[in-house]
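for the recovery benchmark. tokens below, seq after
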């Protein structure tokens, strides 16, 4: 902890710069809890916390999970922090600032100062008259007074490192729909680079005019009058021009490359961030292959933005220079070129609408094809187990044939404009040459030959961009289709804007359902029908019922996956719909029947990319989940590599890892939705035995078919057809709830009464 005594005139106190100032990211200190801040917020490094607070001051919610450490530094450094803020859509700079500069931050927003010991503080203002700055701890409550610090005291803890943040001028709203307008905005924000490219292109265009004019001079002056001095002058000018053109061309390509890469990066970041914010519902209703195919279309948008659109923009500049020169050399020939270009445009426009229809058929067929592929890959285990290869192959053949047919039809139609345009393109170049030659023959001035050469050179340069412009309309159609395909995924209503808004109450774990009715979209019968029950904080709560009775739906609603219910669902007295979604989920630990483990080490899977968590945190969670004994027996312990889908782990081991992963952030509420149902009795016994230990200090909700795993619960909720049948402890339910008794008897039929009682004895801890 860094203490900075206050000025002599102030009360002797100190700034608690940070309790965890050792720089240990993720230490579990309870001190300095930000009011209303999520538990995760308290655990993250003080430097992250300081940046988060300044971002929040500017109305931007950064996600600590997106913080990445690029450097080997043990504490987050200024560059990484600044990059994090930039990725979150802010303008940010990592700087070294002198004291005199600090005094200028009189009325600006807060600035993050990074202290020598790994801590951080917020500079909230300055007073040049008093020669002091005002500092606040990253942990201090919002309304806490800033402390005045003079240069000498600050220099003891601060060497000049700072991070500046403000909302980016070029901030592209993350919630804005994915449309052409959005894409144009994206390009517009590269205005400075675009201006440079424009200047370079304009200069290059001017330079391209010079060689034809020189040829004209060469023919008209040098050849006609044998002027050697003009020839020398021309040669020197051409040499200089070549060098200049080469250098300028190089610079322009370089800038285009950079702009292209930046647009590409922004596009990809935006698309993925929107994808992650789509509601689970969407993924449940759409095959993965279809989503991936639609999103893959952004590569076409990217190519259009960084290729065609940019080059057409440059061509336009070239045309602006070349067309007047063309008319200056010969107006008759100039009109001929423009007329040909006009006819080409008419042909392309005429084919636009039919081509659009055919292209839509291609898109539909390709989407179906991708869906079949994705479904087969995702369900390959079932395909193999049931020997469904021939059926899947037949489906695939059908889809491939359909896509092939659609492409063929599109290609055949697209061939027509191409065929009609080619002779006109040729006529444009050759026709002008022939007519030019005829004009030259009848010209008496003698200058026409040189002009014809110059015109020929220029006409070729004009023809290409003019046709390119017409083709752009065609490309535009394709890109329009690609935008609407990607938009069909990205422009769905996002999970909730409450990722960045909403309340962030401190979670205790008391839950209440009041008259809650919920019906899934596309169904008529409510999955939950006027449900009422309470779960006191810190208790173990079981949910049972027949298949389809609504057990998992309760768990889904608690996670905020579906929010369009009627009635009330309250967490610690706060309506769940009002709570910030990210905050809510950070307070929950969820283990499902089938949990996905990502490719990576066991440690990485338990930590799951959360910033600041270390091996010791992973070990603590693994111990609590009863996973440590098998992890330690593995050849590389916590560094053992797991493949996608974790084929090298047994079902029980996978579940225990999933429990450890859910426990890593010490959730207030833990939900186990059929987490032990698919396990063999031995693995289930191990997991169940650890439940009591896991449940300590948190609310635990266990959804299970197997009643024997719920006997220790404080209360058990019995659901039937979406309605609450009863809520009571195991013994009471056995006595008074017929359905519960029936389920119990079914599952323990093989046991006599004595054994049935034994089964109710809690399993011992292992
Ligand atoms: N995503 C969904 N879309 C539409 N209907 C759904 C969806 N999920 C569940 N349902 C329906 O809602 C009802 C309750 O389902 P829920 O999954 O909550 O039952 P459950 O008690 O957990 O069943 P099980 O024990 O078989 O998992 C069922 O009738 C089910 O068909």
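predicted aa per position
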């Amino acid at each position: 902890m860094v203490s900075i005594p206050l000025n002599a005139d102030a009360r002797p106190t100190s700034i608690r710069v940070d309790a965890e100032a050792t720089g240990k990211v993720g230490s579990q200190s309870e001190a300095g809890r930000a009011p209303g801040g999520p538990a995760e917020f308290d655990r993250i490094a003080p430097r992250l916390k300081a940046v988060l607070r300044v971002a929040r001051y500017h109305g931007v919610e950064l996600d600590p999970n997106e913080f990445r450490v690029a450097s080997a530094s043990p504490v987050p450094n200024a560059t990484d922090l600044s990059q994090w803020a930039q990725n979150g859509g802010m303008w940010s700079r990592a700087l070294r600032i002198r004291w005199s500069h600090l005094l200028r931050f009189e009325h600006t927003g807060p600035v993050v100062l990074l202290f020598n010991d790994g801590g951080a503080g917020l500079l909230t203002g300055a007073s040049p008259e008093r020669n002091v700055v005002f500092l606040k701890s990253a942990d201090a409550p919002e309304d806490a007074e800033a402390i005045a610090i003079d240069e000498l005291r600050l220099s003891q803890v601060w060497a000049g490192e700072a991070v500046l943040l403000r909302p980016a001028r070029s901030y592209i709203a993350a919630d804005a729909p994915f449309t052409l307008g959005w894409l144009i905005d994206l390009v517009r924000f590269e205005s400075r680079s675009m201006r440079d490219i424009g200047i370079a292109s304009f200069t290059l265009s001017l330079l391209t005019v010079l060689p034809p004019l020189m040829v004209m001079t060469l023919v008209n002056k040098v050849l006609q009058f044998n002027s050697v001095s003009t020839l020398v002058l021309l040669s020197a000018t051409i040499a200089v021009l070549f060098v200049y053109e080469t250098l300028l061309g190089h610079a322009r390509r370089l800038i285009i490359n950079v702009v292209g890469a930046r647009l590409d990066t922004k596009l990809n970041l935006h698309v993925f961030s929107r994808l992650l914010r789509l509601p689970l519902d969407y993924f449940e209703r759409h095959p993965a292959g279809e989503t991936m195919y639609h999103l893959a279309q952004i590569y076409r948008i990217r190519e259009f933005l960084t290729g065609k659109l940019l080059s057409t923009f440059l061509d336009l500049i070239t045309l602006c220079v070349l067309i007047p020169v063309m008319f200056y050399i010969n107006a008759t020939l100039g009109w001929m070129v423009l007329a040909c270009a006009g006819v080409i445009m008419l042909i392309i426009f005429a084919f636009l609408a039919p081509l659009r229809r055919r292209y839509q058929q291609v898109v539909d067929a390709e989407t179906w094809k991708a869906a079949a592929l994705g479904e087969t890959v995702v369900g390959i285990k079932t395909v193999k187990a049931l020997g469904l290869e021939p059926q899947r192959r037949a489906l695939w053949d059908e889809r491939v044939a359909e896509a092939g047919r659609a492409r063929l039809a599109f290609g055949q139609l697209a061939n027509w404009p191409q065929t009609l345009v080619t002779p006109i393109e040729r006529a444009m170049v050759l026709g002008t040459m022939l007519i030019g030659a005829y004009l030259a023959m009848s010209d008496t001035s003698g200058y026409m030959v040189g002009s014809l050469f110059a015109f020929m050179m220029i006409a070729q340069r004009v023809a290409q961009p003019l046709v390119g412009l017409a083709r752009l309309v065609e490309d535009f159609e394709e890109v329009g289709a690609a935008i609407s395909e990607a938009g069909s995924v990205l422009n769905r209503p996002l999970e909730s804007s409450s990722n960045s808004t909403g309340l962030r109450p401190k979670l205790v774990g008391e839950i209440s359902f009041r008259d809650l009715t919920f019906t899934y979209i596309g169904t008529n019968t409510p999955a939950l029908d006027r449900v009422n029950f309470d779960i006191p904080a810190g208790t173990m709560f079981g949910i049972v019922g027949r298949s389809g009775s609504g057990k998992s739906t309760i768990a889904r609603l608690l996670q905020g996956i579906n929010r369009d219910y009627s009635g009330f669902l309250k967490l610690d007295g706060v309506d769940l719909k009002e709570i910030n979604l990210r905050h809510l989920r950070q307070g929950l630990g969820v283990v499902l029947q089938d949990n996905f483990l990502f490719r990576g080490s066991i440690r990485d899977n338990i930590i799951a990319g959360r910033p600041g968590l270390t091996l010791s945190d992973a070990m603590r969670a693994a111990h609590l989940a009863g996973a440590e004994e098998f992890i330690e027996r593995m050849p590389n312990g916590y560094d053992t590599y797991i493949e996608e889908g974790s084929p090298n782990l047994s079902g029980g081991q996978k579940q225990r890892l999933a429990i450890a992963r859910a426990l890593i952030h010490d959730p207030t509420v833990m939900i186990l939705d059929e987490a032990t149902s698919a396990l063999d009795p031995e693995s289930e016994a191990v997991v169940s035995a650890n439940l009591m230990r896991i449940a300590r200090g948190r609310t635990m909700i266990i959804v299970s078919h197997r009643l024997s795993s719920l006997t220790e619960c404080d209360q058990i909720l019995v659901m039937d057809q979406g309605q609450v049948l009863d809520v009571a402890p195991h013994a009471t339910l056995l006595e008074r709830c017929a359905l519960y008794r029936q389920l119990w008897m079914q599952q323990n039929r093989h046991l006599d009464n004595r054994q049935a009682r034994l089964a109710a004895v809690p399993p011992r801890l292992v």
